[in-house]
UniProtKB/TrEMBL annotation:
Species name: Vigna unguiculata (Cowpea)
Coiled coil: none
Pfam families from the UniProt entry: Kunitz_legume
Protein name, as recorded: Kunitz inhibitor ST1-like
Signal peptide span: 1-24
GO molecular function: endopeptidase inhibitor activity
Family designation: Belongs to the protease inhibitor I3 (leguminous Kunitz-type inhibitor) family.
Keyword terms, alphabetized: Disulfide bond, Signal
Length: 192
């Protein structure tokens, strides 16, 4: 299909080099190391950073919510998100991760779709024509609990950024990455 060629253009134009990660562990906003496969809110980092957490929204020609967006509302923590590493460790290391929205024990995994009118966007997995790559979580600034996401195919990566237009969609771009901290979502007593 056409997609391989489009993606190679995307690789040439978009990307920063992602060095092989050390095995640093991911921490939440309070500096505690977090479980691999834990459930989190992804919240804006820094005083005065706009908006709230991350959720799924129905945009453009979607018939159900398939777009991953930042909530414009400061008090809105968004959806709980499961972040897991394919490396089977107890705690979450920096590096490749799978992210999925948690709905009543059903996971809606994140993926990336290119060539949309607004660019290369983060969507949930039932979207057609997704790219075969991987999200990567990395510290955004040394000595902080602030993180960013990349989307990589092999060693070529783009930053996951928020496009601040009508809907605050998450996109893979060369722009400054969206910087965030994690807040752990504790299981409710109903889950135990
Ligand atoms: C999060 O997702 C991983 C991978 O699918 C799964 O193994 C883990 O059980 C999930 N965590 C929770 C708390 O549901
Ligand atoms: C929406 O339209 C675009 C073309 O503009 C297409 O690539 C995409 O797959 C469509 N999305 C859905 C959910 O059908
Ligand atoms: C996706 O990439 C993985 C790792 O590079 C590869 O093993 C797999 O076959 C690819 N899948 C498709 C559908 O291209």
């Amino acid at each position: 299909m056409a997609s391989a060629m489009l993606f190679s253009l995307f690789l040439i134009s978009a990307l920063t080099f992602y060095p092989p990660s050390t095995t640093a562990q991911v921490t939440d906003g309070n500096g505690n190391i977090v479980k691999n496969g834990g459930i989190f809110y992804i919240l804006p980092s820094g005083l005065g950073a706009p908006g709230g957490g991350i959720r799924a929204l129905q945009t453009d020609n979607e018939t159900i919510p398939l777009s991953v967006v930042q909530s414009p509302f400061k008090g809105d923590k968004g959806r709980p998100i499961n972040i897991s590493s394919p490396i089977r460790t107890e705690f979450l290391p920096e590096g490749p991760v799978v992210l999925s929205f948690e709905y009543e024990n059903v996971g809606l995994e994140w993926t990336v779709v290119e060539g949309l009118p607004e660019g290369t966007l983060v969507k949930v997995k039932s979207y057609p024509n997704t790219i075969n790559g991987s999200f990567v979580i990395e510290k955004a600034k040394a000595e902080t609990n602030t993180y960013k996401l990349l989307f990589c195919e092999g060693v070529f990566c783009g930053n996951v950024a928020v496009v601040r237009n009508e809907n605050w969609v998450l996109a893979v771009t060369q722009d400054e990455p969206y910087e965030f901290h994690l807040e752990q979502v504790l299981p409710t007593s109903a889950d135990t």
